[in-house]
Amino acid sequence: IARPTDVYRNFISAKDNKALESLELMMMENQRVLQHGFLQTELDRAKESILTMYDKMAKEESKTESSSFASEYVNHFLEGVPAPGIRIENKWAKEFVDGITLEEINSLAKKWITDENLVVVMTMPESKGLKLPTEKDVLKVINKVKKAKTQPYVDNVKTEPFLVKEPKAGKVVKKEENKKFGYTELALSNGAKVILKSTDFKNDEIVVEAWSAGGASLYPENKLINVKFAAPIIDASGIGNYDNSQLKKFLKGKTVGLAPSISDLEETLSGSSSPADFETLLQYLYMFFEAPRKDKDVLATEVSKMESQFKMMRNMPDIQFQLEWMKAMKPTDKRSIYLPTDEQMKQMNIDEMYKIFRERFSDASDFTFAFIGNIDIDKTIPLIEKYIGSIPSKNRNEKWLDKDAPFAKGVVDKVVYKGQDNKGTMVVVGNHSFEWNDKERMATRLLNDICSIKLTETIREELGGTYSPSFQLSYDKYPKPEASFLAYYSCDPQNIDNLTNATWRVFDKIIAEGPTETDLAKAKEQTIRLRETQQQKNEFWSSVIKGSIWYDYQLTNLEEYKANVNSITIEDIKEVAKKYLKHDEHVRVSLKPEAMQPAK
Hints:
Elements: H1 19-36, H2 40-59, H3 66-79, H4 86-97, H5 102-112, H6 135-147, E1 172-178, E2 183-188, E3 193-198, E4 206-213, H7 224-236, H8 244-251, E5 256-262, E6 266-273, H9 278-290, H10 296-314, H11 317-329, H12 342-346, H13 350-360, E7 368-373, H14 377-387, E8 411-417, E9 424-433, H15 438-462, E10 470-476, E11 482-491, H16 496-513, H17 517-534, H18 538-550, H19 558-566, H20 570-580, E12 586-592
Parallel strand pairs: 3-7, 8-12
Antiparallel strand pairs: 1-2, 2-3, 4-6, 4-7, 5-6, 9-11, 9-12, 10-11
Helix pairs in contact: 1-6, 2-4, 7-13, 15-16, 15-17, 15-20, 16-20, 17-19
């Protein structure tokens, strides 16, 4: 219906009872553009960003996935968007973008920001104490903005060097070649371990993953709220001498992304860059260790956003269901923070977050850094020595601590009555000790696919084709080897017991008889095909190389992997099913509408 119509749109999210103030703020920026226009520096960054995007896509033309072509053809058919191919589009971009002037851009504002065909849409949840603005209120804001005299925008661009100080390069003290899997292992003089793998999967991509054991497990309960938000808040504060806004401007037109994270058992840095911007990526990574930044205004802004968001989420039936589900699985868990309470929000402190971040990201000696992609290893090593080799070292050898709460005992069955719609949700979860070895992992992986196949077939057949189950049988080695099954359904709330019983029948049949030869063959085919496609991606190699170190298992090439898959028999599947699909102890949590709640 809307395809023939082009629109100029602005969006803004508002806190409770702040919709009018947010609308005024948003429209005032439009007024600023009308009165003063954009700046040449803003246009230059936008041009650089667009040209970088087209250039990157052109470099990856031969590596483009089919889904991208399909999307482009759909747009061509439905909207008449030309589809000449990325090389020609890149050529056009270079020809046209350079000639676009600031006057042309600013003239568009006068055409697009007008009083004609102006539509204001506000949506907000039904909530006690929430005041809905009237049409008169909205018109008052519009008229106020029209009469306002704004100040010109000041483009606060950093011109000083990105690095706060010049790194003092370390040295490679050991170098080993893994010829079977084509990667190089380096040990640096500061204790850092580095893995380099050159690939041709993408012409314009290098991915990085750095990790160290420890994480949130090293902190007591009263510090966990600051541990949880330390990485995202420090990340959002900028880096070195650059605040977040200045950093975004500096990175505009560059293909660089990097983000820190602190999970239960480890701290990580993950990201990627183009080969041309690889040194900038290394500088950015170096700065997270040498010059992270804290900004109390960033924390205040984020807390303000989260307070409104969390308040709304607490009233959502699906969120209430998920919270009860988490509590039911681990009733004694006091460390997990799914939705912070008001009291926890008050404990958030920028100085404490900065201290935690520095503790987690200050020692190169217990970090491993993996770089996978279009890299020249000989040319890369001097850069690694300069930026990774210069990170300070404390010669720590930290280990994570097992503070995981135990899974619920016996059978737990909880019902959450929330919401008005006649719809239901149900999840059943089981948890068991896992025997960690290569054969067990492969058999369990195949069992996961077999269960997904049989649950979909059985439940659609028995319940009229209405439901598509979501099933996962997963395992982990840490903090202790465990396997968990999870079956999740959106359904008619009257059918929750039927779905549960159908799930148990599928499990019990596989436990008793094993899978059919057809289902096992189908699961094997899916598993091998997935491996064939995955191993053509840099992210896959980053993941499996890290996994082989973190979990201490042997990497396998494709032929070895196929042999491992094909070695699994029906009896092998039966054996793992007996261990990991048994449901004499499990948790079931259901969501039903409030109207179904029994009278007290």
